[in-house]
């Protein structure tokens, strides 16, 4: 279904550039004016304690494969909530404004945060979007193989994809890991979350153990295409999808029964994995996708180490599973 680029990995860490010397992965992408804009997570070792820390870098390309990278991070970690980094961006444009959700990480728990811009260059950080979030009260859970988190901390919140249109004058977002929820806001600062998950993990499927939101929803003539990560009990990260009603996104038209993309290539099976190191997880992680004509192009982190791309026809995806 998906054809991997022969140039994969298209981005690798660069030991000569300190802030992206260890890993580059989990990118988001926007295609505008015949140019691909790529924002990606870049990791380095903090000298004082050898802890991994993240910033968000930027690059652009005319062909979607060969990217010109900026020398400095576009969005830098700052403040107590971001001591270990800004991670896993997801980029949306509504009207003339660019909205980029990301994970603020202090080494203990994740906070879903937002930055906004009018030109993709200067970014205003809004801060945590869901400061009162309680993962467990709202139907979420922690997993015993995620070594990046404190298991019983209910504040854990990440992975938000904002729809590129408003509904009833409100911003709409799908977010979360473990399960996935809806949230809406009139001003981007104050968000009202659903108290029950929109979708949950499914016993016996590729998403039996854990879910996590993928790129921001993509509008198609068939409905809103929502890619998400499904994880099974062997800790294999695969991509599935939802197709949601265009007028009422809370209505599910279809949910994939089988994955549409999974780790197979050598560069997707070996790397510096963030989580579950003792259990050897297999991870492809997609925060970025663009639909150009009838071709869906995804950008993803492979084995938490490098950045890759692959393409498939939209009709083939929807017909196959």
Please, how many domains? 1
Fraction of residues in helices? Answer: under 10%
How many strand units?
Answer: 22
Structural category is: mainly beta
Which fold does the CATH topology refer to? Tachylectin-2, Chain A
What would you call the quaternary organization? single chain
User: Rg to the nearest angstrom?
Assistant: 18 Å
List keywords for this structure.
4-stranded antiparallel sheet, mainly beta, 321 residues, Tachylectin-2, Chain A, 43% strand
Overall description:
With 321 residues, the protein is mainly beta. It has one domain: Tachylectin-2, Chain A (5 Propeller), CATH 2.115.10.20. Helices cover 3% and strands 43% of the residues. The chain contains 2 helices and 22 strands. It has helices at 266-269, 314-320; strands at residues 3-4, 23-32, 35-45, 52-61, 68-69, 85-94, 97-105, 110-117, 124-128, 160-162, 171-175, 177-178, 181-185, 191-193, 210-213, 218-220, 223-231, 237-244, 252-255, 284-292, 295-302, 306-313. The strands form 5 sheets. Strands 12, 15, 16, 17, 18 and 19 form a 6-stranded antiparallel β-sheet that branches. The chain has a 4-stranded antiparallel β-sheet with strand order 1-22-21-20. A hairpin with an 8-residue loop joins β10 and β11. 45% of the residues are buried. The mean pLDDT is 94.
């Amino acid at each position: 279904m998906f054809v991997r680029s022969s140039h994969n990995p298209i981005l690798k860490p660069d030991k000569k550039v300190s802030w992206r010397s260890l890993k580059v992965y989990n990118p988001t992408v926007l295609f505008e004016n015949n140019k691909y804009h790529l924002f990606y997570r870049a990791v380095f070792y903090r000298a004082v304690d050898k802890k991994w820390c993240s910033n968000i870098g930027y690059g652009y390309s005319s062909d979607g494969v060969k990217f010109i990278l900026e020398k400095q991070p576009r969005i830098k970690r700052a403040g107590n909530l971001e001591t270990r980094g800004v991670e896993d961006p997801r980029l949306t444009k509504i009207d003339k404004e660019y909205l980029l959700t990301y994970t603020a990480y202090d080494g203990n728990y994740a906070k879903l945060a937002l930055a906004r811009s009018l030109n993709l260059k200067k970014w205003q950080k809004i801060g945590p979007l869901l400061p009162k979030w309680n993962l467990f009260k709202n139907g979420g859970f922690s997993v015993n193989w995620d070594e990046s988190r404190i298991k019983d901390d209910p504040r854990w919140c990440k992975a938000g994809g904002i729809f590129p249109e408003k509904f009833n004058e409100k911003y709409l977002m799908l977010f979360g890991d473990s399960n996935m929820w809806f949230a809406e806001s009139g001003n981007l600062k104050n968000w009202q979350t659903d108290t029950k998950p929109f979708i949950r993990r499914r016993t016996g499927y590729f998403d039996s153990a854990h879910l996590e939101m993928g790129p921001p929803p993509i509008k198609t003539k068939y409905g809103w295409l929502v890619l998400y990560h499904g994880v099974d009990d062997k800790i294999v990260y695969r991509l599935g999808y939802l197709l949601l009603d265009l007028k009422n996104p809370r209505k599910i038209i279809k949910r994939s029964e089988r994955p549409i993309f999974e780790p197979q290539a050598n560069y997707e099976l070996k790397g510096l994995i963030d989580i579950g190191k003792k259990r050897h997880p297999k991870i492809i992680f997609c925060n970025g996708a663009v639909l150009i004509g009838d071709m869906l192009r995804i950008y993803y982190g492979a084995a938490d180490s490098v950045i890759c791309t692959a393409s498939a026809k939209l009709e083939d995806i929807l017909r196959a599973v």
